[in-house]
Design goal:
Blueprint lengths: L16 H5 L5 H29 L14 H12 L3 H10 L8 H6 L1
Length: about 110
Amino acid sequence: MDIKNSKAPVSTTTIDKNLVDAPTDNIYEAISIVAKRATQINSEIKKELIEKLDEFATYNDSLDEIFENKEQIEVSKFYERLPKPHSLAIEEWLEDKIYFRNTKEDQQA
């Protein structure tokens, strides 16, 4: 997933409930699926951010010396401006990019 080129909104938007629950016919199930995907996206973003910040990290034994690292600040600001994970997840859901299955129906078959 390319979060940098995503069309997901950065701010809050209203989404038609019928569009959200159309694939499952159950709004609660749809929201649960989107929430799980948002958690996955958040983990991916967090891992990527930590890796990038570690590239610029300076390790000191003294707590008295704290350096302001411009690169770390720029990376952090970039990630703050990205759409939130739930916006990215709902965009994927509406574009039918999330695979899901109902395990209860699978067990009955």
